[in-house]
Amino acid sequence: MFEFIQLEQLLAIDKYKTLSKAAEELLISQPALSRSMQRLEEELQVTLFTRQKNKITFNENGKLALEYARKIVNSSLEMKEHLQAFDKSNHTISIGSCAPAPIWNLTPEVSRLFPDMKIQSDMKSLDELVDGLINNKYKIIITTDEMNLPDIISRKYCEEHLYISLPPAHPLAGHKSLTLNDLNGQSILILSKIGFWYDICKAKMPDSLFLVQEELSALDELRKSSALPSFATDLTNKSSSHDNRILIPLTDPEVNVTFYINYNKSYKKQFESIIYTSIDSK
């Protein structure tokens, strides 16, 4: 029977048009490639090429062989990808979230409950999260709305409320509460990669300058050394960089959210302990 590598060589000849160029790309000698194609023809019991001096072209048999070769090679690549994804899914719990804080809280809980599993997490938009859950890219997703899909379990996980962190001398520091509109036009320190929070703040504070910091440590240092406002939440305001600041709650409904944890019903027995552990710990 012919070998898989011979099909790859056949496709290389079609791609690079000459034996010499194909051999160069395949890192073998031209005579070795020529002999391999002759063996393939012998195995298939048909000729695949029209051979002329210093030139080789596919005949009708060869063109049909190329179609089959592409299907076989593509199927093998698909098989490899699916097997790797299947193996990964059996050893990995992938979590997707629309915001960072729920991941920070959920990841150690999941790791404790499943010590033999690798925990992988990232932040995406709501549409990407839902697609990822349906297509098994994620086993768990965290959203700000309860999902009403037939095969999905959706449960309340936690709440998060946004605050503005101000130095005592700031003109707005005396307020008991504020809105994002009250802050519009201010220059504000903000952490990068905060998911949906950033989109809301940009939309409701179009005149503000957001000084985005890539690292939390850099944000903390700037909070300590500057008079610039910054954001905090009840899930993230434990940093000592807020010690000499006033945290004022923001009353906009969009920044006082309930997070829901969502997973496929097939994982009910596996993941229901996460739900109860998480809610009881809040």
Average pLDDT number: 90
Classify the oligomer: single chain
* N-to-C CA distance: 63 Å
- What is the rounded Rg? 29 Å
Point out poorly predicted stretches. none
CATH overall fold name of the largest domain: D-Maltodextrin-Binding Protein, domain 2
Beta percentage is 15-25%
Overall geometry comes to elongated
What is the CATH H-level superfamily of the largest domain? Periplasmic binding protein-like II
The CATH class of the largest domain turns out to be Alpha Beta
Architecture of the largest domain in CATH?
Answer: 3-Layer(aba) Sandwich
- The proportion of residues forming helix, as a percent range, comes to 40-55%
GO molecular function: DNA binding; DNA-binding transcription factor activity
Family: Belongs to the LysR transcriptional regulatory family.
Domain HTH lysR-type: 2-59
Keywords: DNA-binding, Transcription, Transcription regulation
